[in-house]
Amino acid sequence: MRKIMPGCFLLVLVGLIFTLTHANTTAPTDEPAQPIVRFLGSQACKECHPVPYKAWTGMKHARAYVILAWYVSREMVGEGDPPKQNKACLHCHSTAANLPVERRAPDFHIEDGVQCESCHGPGEHHVEKERARKEGKEMDFPKTADYSKPSEKTCKACHRPLAPHGTLKIPPLDYEKAWPLIEHEEEKNGLTPSESKETNGSK
Questions:
Q1: Taking a C-beta distance cutoff of 8 angstroms, is the pair 94, 47 a contact?
Q2: In angstroms, how far apart are the furthest CA atoms of the chain?
């Protein structure tokens, strides 16, 4: 019996140490959970920004998802997932495709390619705030999107050398030369923001 006691004591000690080191020591917090900010799609942007929207529809960005059906796209992935189901492809050829479904509005379509929110961020709060403002209401949301000119870093997150694209021999992105090709500020397209809204039927 005396020989057993030290072993039992050791087991109890090990169990106590395990319990203490694996206990949930996270302090409770009263901070509210951060709300999910959804991607709405370029159609939502068109409501107040018809001129940039029209410019976008003529860009290659708007057709970025479509080209995943091309034969050369299927050749690039080889035996991997088909381009339209391939997360690596979708990351740059669509918007929010790899995010949980609750991050996308019900009428959001990844098939619309690289949309406004791909560069500017999810627009749900921005749209809600602007719609409320038109009704004379004020809504305060944390900033979740950036509506200024995308930075070179933002563009090069996708426009960079990628192994599967080697056969296409795409030259490195020259940010300063590339920007004028997709410039879509309302003032640059002949309308001020206020005139743009009036053209769209809202004042």
A1: no
A2: 95
Hey, where are the domains in the chain?
42-198
Cβ neighbourhood burial of 147 (10 Å; 0-12, 13-18, 19+):
middle
Q: Identify residue 11 by its one-letter amino acid code.
A: L
- Run of H or E residues at 14: helix 4-21
Helical H segments across 78-189, by residue range: 87-93, 116-120, 124-134, 152-156, 175-182
Cα–Cα distance for residue pair 41/128, rounded to 1 Å:
14
Is 123 within 8 Å of 116 (Cβ atoms)? yes
Q: For 25-81, what is each residue's pLDDT tens digit? A: 444 445 555 678 999 999 999 988 999 999 999 999 999 999 999 988 888 888 888
The whole-model pTM stands at 0.70
191/126 Cα distance (integer angstroms)? 21
